[in-house]
Design goal:
With 75 residues, this protein is mainly beta. The chain has one domain. Helices cover 11% and strands 44% of the residues. It is globular. The relative contact order is 0.31.
């Protein structure tokens, strides 16, 4: 299980916090897509840092459109 925190997402600067079972692109995409009018998104996170210490970014093309932090809760 993973806790996903998102801040400053899109023009409305939406913040949200959700728990997902598996960490995969489709789940992250489905989490943020309802708040955006953008089809192609990418996520930039350090691979070795799912402990909630560092923020990553959500991008539309080359432009950052939000921040994301992932914390692994348990196996």
């Amino acid at each position: 299980m993973y806790k996903i925190e998102v801040e400053e997402l899109g023009e409305e600067k939406v913040s949200l916090c959700e728990t997902i079972k598996y960490l995969c692109y489709q789940d992250l995409y489905n989490l943020v897509k309802p708040y955006l009018n953008i089809e192609h998104l990418s996520f930039s996170l350090r691979n070795d840092c799912p402990d909630g210490r560092e923020w990553g970014f959500i991008y539309a093309g080359q432009d950052p459109i939000g921040k994301i932090r992932i914390t692994k809760l348990f196996e």
